[in-house]
Amino acid sequence: MRVTHLSLTDFRNYAQAEVPLFAGPNLIVGRNGQGKTNLVEALGYLSTLGSHRVSTLTAMIRAGQDAAIIRARLESNGRQILAEVQLNRTGQNRAQVNRSVIRTRDLPRYFSCVVFAPEDLALVRGDPGGRRRFLDQLLVLRTPRLAGVLADYDRVLKQRNSLLKSARSSGVKGNQLATLEIWDERLVAFGSEIIDERAELVRQLGEPLRVAYRAVVGADHGPTLSGALSILGADADGEISTSSTTATGSAMTGSSNTPAGTRIPLIAPGATTADVFRSALAGLRRKELERGITLAGPHRDDVIFSLNDLPAKGYASHGESWSFALSLKLASAELLRRDSVTGDPVVILDDVFAELDQQRRTRLAAAVTGFEQVLITSAVLEDVPEALVAHTIHIRGGAVVDG
To answer: Where is it located (predicted)?
Structure first.
């Protein structure tokens, strides 16, 4: 898969932009603040329905305008696709494919990309929410129908939390408990599927992560992933204990390698994820009613990243954390490549090379040149290896200019 042309209207600092793109590497270069990242952010939205920079979509609409339009011409296995989305300050966003209206949430079915940017250092060093979003976005890219499951889970979670808050403020009544049990079953149904899908994804990421890390760093520091499930180890405050880190060997656990020193929780033979989830909710009932929130489920899970059998968060250096996050994105691209019937995902490297030494720049260039299309942004042309500068686009003040 590749993008042959990107068109923007009132997106970020672009009143209008027309950007031709080519197979292989495409370098977008310009001084900081000129609009390089805005171009790749637009493509990232088509793939993930989100921004790697901000949480509010209105920030992507040019100041003083009511809407922004992203339009991309795509080529996949000889098929031409025109994907379009209109982002609105008020009201719902609108999407089209080949001029036919579609649900916005279906856009990722038509375009797949993997973005790596400086913000992704938070995957290693930040809070669990970022890691959950990373897994869920990758799940949706691989299996688009899971977008509906995730949306259904969020809806049920909000309803259940609302009921818990109401019960806390008014005192628990019999009918409220009966209603809560109904929401429990819905939460368990959607949540168990998410837990199992994430676990399988974590398992499958393990080997591509190790390969990517060796390719970028030139050494094997034993990078691993292991799921930490709140339904296995939520304490009274809903925090995940070390005993909730999952083990290798069952569909539910989803560990690419269990870190040394991890305690393996005992699960009854034959128990399903739904059984364990249901039991966790029953055990936390009193605490949930006291606090008015749901204390177990995929919305409170985490993934533990490790290097050399130590948690990367808190132990890895800046360079190691950066290399781990980059390798995680390259591993994601490799999984999407294996799954896809439409070709490689587009790989986007946003302002990455400035953070790398010369040796790692060369290694990264070698690692990505096999993908059908790679987009790179850089403030300094000389930071980018020569192998990636065949097609160079210069940006100045929200406009595409000649060199």
So the answer is: Cytoplasm
